[in-house]
Design a protein that fits this description.
Elements lengths: L6 H5 L12 H20 L3 H14 L3 E2 H7 L8 E6 L3 E6 L9 E7 L4 E12 L2 E9 L12 E8 L5 E6 L9 E2 L8 H4 L3 H4 L7 E4 L11 H14 L10 E6 L4 E3 L5 E4 L2 H15 L8 E7 L16 H13 L5 H9 L2 E4 L3 E2 L21 E4 L3 E2 L10 H13 L4 E3 L9 E2 L3 H6 L3 E6 L1 E2 L7 E4 H16 L1
Parallel strand pairs: 1-2, 4-14, 4-15, 15-21, 16-22, 17-19
Antiparallel strand pairs: 2-3, 3-14, 5-6, 5-11, 6-10, 7-8, 7-11, 9-10, 12-13, 13-23, 17-21, 18-20
Helix pairs in contact: 2-13, 8-13
Length: 473
C-alpha cells in the first residue's frame, strides 16, 4: 500500500540540510574541496596573491594568456582556454564554447578583495619609545574588531631602481607579527560610554612595528630609524619607497576547521574568496567544450564600490570580450559585443548573510539563509527599499532554480537581514547594466566582514556544484 502524500508536502516547500541529501561519496568530496579551499585562502590573503594563485592553476590546466593570442593573431576555436590578468589584481578565465560569443556567455563572477587595513603613503613614525605605521582602513570593517589581534603585512614595495619586491611578514611560525593596541578595561571608563563605532576611531588604528632604538645616537628618531635599517637590510628599501608601495594589513594565521565535527571553516576573507574559489574550481573542472562560452571573473575593488581599472566598473572585461570576438570572426563590429552581453547569463558569486541566532533581531528568520542548507539565491540586495539593487527577473530566477534542481544542487533563498536594518550589494548591477541576466548566488557566512569569518563546508561544496552546473547546462 502506497504511503499517502500529505497535501502540505505536495503544495508546500522547505529548505533542507545538505547532509541529509548527499551520498557518502559527496560527503568525502566535501572534505577534500574544503582542504583545497583552505590552501587557497591561506596563500591568497590579498587580491594580488589570489590573482597569482588563480593564474598559476589556470596555466597548469591549459589556459593561454590573451595577450599572446592577440600578438600572434590566433584564430579562436571552440574549446580553447584563455585568461586575462589585469595588473595582477583581477583575473578572468574563459573556455570558448561551440556557439559564437555573440550568442551569449555563462558567467560566474566574484571578487577577490576583502575588508582590511592599508598603510598610509607616509606611514612610519615613532612616539613614546615605539615605532608605528599609520593606516587607512579599506572596505566596511568594524574597527573595534581589529584591535588586539595578531596581524601580518602583505603587498609590494617598488624601490628607487623600479624593482618590485613582494612582502609577506607574519604568516610563518618564525615571523614576527604586528599589533593594534586597545585600552585596558581598568582605564576604559570614557571609552565605554562610546558606541561600538566610536570606541576605536580610524586614526587610532596605528600598527605597532618596533620598540628598539638604532645604534646611531645622533639620530633624532632612533626607534623609527631602527625599523628603516631593518627594512633596508632585508628588502633594500628606504622611507621614500613607502610612497609607491601597496601594503595591506590582514589577520595573521591560517584558516582552521571549526566545531567538534570539523563541519565549518573559520578564516580571513571568506567574503568573497570562498565564492571565487568555488567559481575557479568549477571552471577548471569543466571537461570538453561547453555549448556557450563560460567565464570566471575574479575582480578587485568590490569592497569599495568596484571602481578603478581593476574593479568590475572598468572596461577590462568588455575589452577582453571584444578582443576574443575579434579573434573569432572576420567582420567584427562593436555591435556584436553589445549583443553578446544582452544574451549573457550571470551568477554574481558573492556571499550571503547567514542567520545568526545570537543576533536574531537583525534578521527576518523566514527569509534568511542558514548555515548548512546549501548555496543561497539572493534575488535582490540593496538597502531599505531595494536601493541600489539588481532584482533578478522571475524568468531568470526560475531558470537557475531549474538548473539546480536537475543537477541535484541543494539551494535556498535569502536576503540581507531585516528591511530597515541596513543593506548592501555587490557586482550584480554592473553586468545587469550591460543587459545581462544576473542573480546574486553564493555561500552563507557568519560574522561577515570580521577579521575571521565562518562558513559551512557543506555550503562551500554545494556552491561549487551549483556554479559548475550553471556553467555547463
Amino acid at each position: 500500500m502506497e504511503k499517502e502524500i500529505k497535501k502540505e508536502d505536495l503544495l508546500g516547500h522547505k529548505f533542507e540540510y545538505v547532509q541529509d541529501k548527499i551520498s557518502e561519496d559527496e560527503k568525502t568530496l566535501t572534505v577534500e574541496i574544503a582542504e583545497e579551499y583552505k590552501r587557497f585562502i591561506d596563500e591568497g590573503k590579498t587580491e594580488r596573491e589570489c590573482c597569482q594563485y588563480i593564474e598559476r592553476l589556470a596555466r597548469e590546466n591549459g589556459f593561454s594568456n590573451i595577450d599572446d593570442l592577440i600578438k600572434e593573431n590566433v584564430e579562436l576555436q571552440p574549446g580553447m582556454k584563455v585568461y586575462g590578468n589585469n595588473r595582477d589584481k583581477s583575473i578572468i578565465l574563459f573556455i570558448i564554447g561551440e556557439d559564437s560569443i555573440e550568442s551569449g556567455m555563462k558567467i560566474v563572477g566574484g571578487h577577490i578583495d576583502s575588508p582590511r587595513i592599508d598603510l598610509k603613503p607616509t606611514p612610519l613614525y615613532e612616539d613614546s619609545g615605539m615605532a608605528y605605521f599609520k593606516t587607512h582602513y579599506y572596505g566596511g570593517i568594524r574597527k573595534y574588531q581589529w584591535a588586539s589581534l595578531p596581524l601580518s603585512i602583505h603587498g609590494v614595495i617598488i624601490n628607487e631602481k623600479g624593482e618590485k619586491i613582494s612582502i609577506s611578514i607574519g604568516e610563518e611560525a618564525c615571523d614576527p607579527i604586528f599589533f593594534i593596541s586597545d585600552l585596558l578595561p581598568h582605564l576604559a571608563k570614557d571609552q565605554n560610554k562610546k558606541s561600538l563605532a566610536e570606541g576605536i576611531e580610524g586614526e587610532g588604528l596605528n600598527l605597532i612595528v618596533g620598540n628598539t632604538m638604532s645604534d646611531d645616537k645622533e639620530a633624532k628618531e632612533r626607534f623609527k630609524l631602527k625599523v628603516l635599517e631593518i627594512l633596508n637590510e632585508k628588502y633594500n628599501v628606504t622611507e621614500e619607497d613607502f610612497m609607491t608601495a601597496e601594503l595591506e594589513i590582514v589577520p595573521a594565521g591560517k584558516a582552521r576547521d571549526a566545531g567538534f565535527d570539523r563541519s565549518m571553516i573559520v578564516g580571513y576573507g571568506h567574503d568573497d574568496r570562498s565564492c571565487s574559489f568555488a567559481g575557479m574550481k568549477a571552471i577548471l573542472d569543466i571537461e570538453g567544450t561547453p555549448k556557450k562560452t563560460v567565464v570566471g571573473m575574479f575582480m578587485d575593488k568590490e569592497e569599495v564600490g568596484s571602481m578603478g581599472n581593476t574593479g568590475s566598473e572598468s572596461k577590462y572585461f568588455e575589452n577582453m570580450v571584444a578582443e576574443l570576438m575579434n579573434l573569432q570572426m572576420d567582420n567584427y563590429k562593436d555591435l556584436y559585443v553589445r549583443r553578446a552581453f544582452m544574451n549573457t547569463k550571470v551568477l554574481s558569486a558573492d556571499v550571503g548573510a547567514a542567520y545568526d541566532p545570537n543576533y536574531a533581531s537583525a534578521y527576518d528568520k523566514r527569509n534568511s539563509p542558514f548555515m548548512g542548507k546549501g548555496i543561497v539565491l539572493v534575488k535582490y540586495t540593496g538597502a531599505r527599499g531595494k536601493s541600489g539593487c539588481n532584482d533578478a527577473n522571475a524568468e531568470f530566477v526560475h531558470e537557475v532554480r531549474d538548473i539546480f534542481n536537475r543537477h541535484d544542487v541543494i539551494w535556498q533563498t535569502g536576503e540581507l537581514g531585516k528591511v530597515d536594518q541596513g543593506g548592501g550589494g555587490t557586482i550584480a548591477y554592473i553586468l545587469a547594466n550591460a543587459g545581462a541576466d544576473v542573480i546574486d548566488c553564493g555561500i552563507p557566512v557568519i560574522s561577515m566582514h570580521a577579521p575571521y569569518e565562518m562558513i559551512s563546508k557543506a555550503d562551500l561544496y554545494m556552491t561549487y556544484k551549483g556554479y559548475k552546473a550553471f556553467l555547463i547546462d
